[in-house]
């Protein structure tokens, strides 16, 4: 798994690529902690290149969301693949996460 950070007008974008599983879920948590996102800002997780996500990966996504929200920020999942959307729906996490089609839509909040 690789995580690439870039800045967007509304906050920060983390592009997650590869497999998010029990072997590297902690890496996503650490990447989010290192961003030091100020309150009121947005963390967008671009999942367009995410190929696989197991329960540890979902737990990491939830942990990142909880951390950002408790610090006064927001989390948005963007460019979520059809399979990942299906899993988010089956687990009810589509009701927890704000899901957008593209990073470009983040300025239209």
UniProtKB/TrEMBL annotation:
One of its GO terms (molecular function) is anti-sigma factor antagonist activity. Residues 1-109 form the STAS domain. It comes from the Bacteria. InterPro entries: Anti-sigma_ant (IPR003658), STAS_dom (IPR002645), STAS_dom_sf (IPR036513). CDD domains: STAS_anti-anti-sigma_factors. Belongs to the anti-sigma-factor antagonist family. This is Anti-sigma factor antagonist. It comes from Streptomyces griseoloalbus.
